[in-house]
Amino acid sequence: MPVHAQEPVPITNAKEASLPSYPETRRDDVVETIFGTNVADPYRWLEADVRNSADVADWVARQSAFTDAYLATLNEREWFAAKLGEMLDYERFGIPEKKGGLLFYTYNPGLADQDVLLMKPMSGDVLDGNGQVLLDPNEWSDDGTVALAGWNPSAQAKILSYQVQEAGSDWNTIEFLDLATGQKLADRIEWVKTGGAQWIDDRRFVYSRFPEPAEGDDFQVANRNQQIWMHVLGQPQSADRLIYATPDRPSMLHGASVSADGRWLFIYSQDGSVPGNELRILPVEDLAAEPIVVADTMDHQWEVIEAVGDTVILRTDKDAPLYRLMSLDLSAGQPQVEELIAQGQHNMDAARVMGDRIVIDYLEDVKSRLRLFTLDGKPAGEVGLPGIGSVAGLSGEPGESEAWFGFSSFNRPPEVYRLDLATGDSRSIVDRTLGFDPEQFVVEQVFYPSADDTRIPMFIVKRADVTGPAPTLLYAYGGFNVSLPPSFSSTRMAWLQAGGVFALANIRGGGEYGSAWHDAARGPKRENAFADFIAAGEWLKANGVTGGNQLAIQGGSNGGLLMGVVTNRRPDLFDVVNADVGVMDMLRFDRWGYGRAWAADYGFPDVEEDFHVLRSYSPYHNVPASGDYPAILVTTADTDDRVIPGHSFKYAAALQHAELGNSPHLIRIETRAGHGAGMPVSKIIGKNADVLGFLAHWTDLQPD
């Protein structure tokens, strides 16, 4: 639940009664002239971290008390809290990873705050919760906010590396477990944000880290000068060997991976100014050698799928916006990439070498299709899937006879499938009881025209017995080449169980149709994403899916930005809004964390041409002085260090200062939580009961 620092303000009836005055927010006289434009920023003081500023902490406490008092009047919250508990109370299994004849996977019996990590010998065909417990994050903190952010067994499964995340922070600490003794090692790797330990063998690994921030700056420091290091177990981190850095280009972000056989190190580099990346390859046993340069510019995306002997298989969008696979013979005097599997008619969303097969997940109109190829690129069949849905977590290695993958859909919680690589046959290895019947829900895909007549796909999900206009929750993301295929959400299922309709619009800016779909809403073309979403809302109302006062919209992170923009543009179209952890100040987003790396999608605020585009739609800067706005619930977390909560704080303050009608404009601030990852189940239930209760209340959805 949010912060409770004061007695709540009494509110008797949330919808019919007028709200009391919002908590006072100080307005400072801050005005900058940027490229000839005067930009007011009266709430800049709210950018300070709540842990370092007493003024911000006081503002958070007063806003939280006000919001708590309002939400407490919503009868719908109690129903959704109970239903969310039911929807989450089923066994959940992560995709297994096989190492050293052992199977590793995460497990949650249902309502545990955090998943545990289990290990079991390779035997039987069904996953269960009876494996050996290696790590139980539920024992790491009293409030469930210390999470297992990642894990990786060493080459022969002698050592387990794992990443510890506290209060949702992107900062991780890597720690280690001896799998033979169960004892924790003394080694500890700090100032890591992505990637974890990439094992070379059972005692050496590489990892990416940032320099240690100055004291007090770790919460909001801009991430620069990322480097790749090698660690040897038993030595302090201070003794680690620097492998790769670009001090002359401090904005570059570097990541690394190691081939399954431990022979090759792959180094990825990007700065976020464009979507592509550089790629270099080093032999592990001669890391001082001159690297083999696959790409020294960021014109295209390059992803290593695997190395099989001296041949590296790569996925790229070079001359192939729907992606293709290339091969690179490292034993050649001058290695050159050659096409292995050509671009097809559909987006090659993911690929992996497993056994003696290349397994490719194609998105065909945003629905997974899993196909097999030989290592020399010849078609070798297709893996049958149980229906409309998406594949996730391809898991397997070269030389093995079996592999695993996950499958889910809007009405199907994630299942784990075992894949026989010799026959292509697959079967579910999860046996569990669900609290609902998936067949009682209907999944439909439609295509609607955007403002420029581009055909946009949208999924519509509802209970089979729901007819006519109904309260509808419309969701989208539309950025960073992220695809949103059908997948399961307990939160959405609770909305559907209540009789609501859920719609997912696959707007431009995502990766559903390859890099061209992404490019169509980058930089000055971002208007296409906004237009696509507005057109989705118009289509839902014009086609009787939803009616007047029944359309709720929701988006998070980049999708939170989307919510702010479309609400400013069309407050008449949308009836209630949830803007979650959104990027709301488009003129200062690049100052914190990974913000500078978002410029590939947004542009640079300090470049004049980009500034004028960003100023034109920045949600915080475009809240009008007056108007008639729908009910809005802004949601964020006080320790989010990816999109700092100052974005949401400033936006909410601007909404509350303006004269925007009688509907509430509130902010819900989660404590000891970040951008979403690692949030304990108890907090997930509390947050989403509040959000769904608010959306249901303002769309007249009466749970039945």
UniProtKB/TrEMBL annotation:
Pfam families assigned: Peptidase_S9, Peptidase_S9_N
GO terms for MF: oligopeptidase activity; serine-type endopeptidase activity
Record InterPro entries: AB_hydrolase_fold (IPR029058), Pept_S9_AS (IPR002471), Pept_S9A_N (IPR023302), Peptidase_S9_cat (IPR001375), Peptidase_S9A (IPR002470), Prolyl_oligopep/macrocyclase (IPR051167)
Protein name: prolyl oligopeptidase
Region (Disordered): 1-23
GO cellular component: cytosol
Key words of the record: Hydrolase, Protease, Serine protease
Span of domain Peptidase S9A N-terminal: 23-430
Every Peptidase S9 prolyl oligopeptidase catalytic domain range: 486-700
PANTHER family for the chain: PROLYL ENDOPEPTIDASE
Superkingdom in the source lineage: Bacteria
Catalyzed reactions per annotation: Hydrolysis of Pro-|-Xaa >> Ala-|-Xaa in oligopeptides
Family listed: Belongs to the peptidase S9A family.
GO biological process entries: proteolysis
Species this protein is from: Croceicoccus marinus
EC number in record: 3.4.21.26
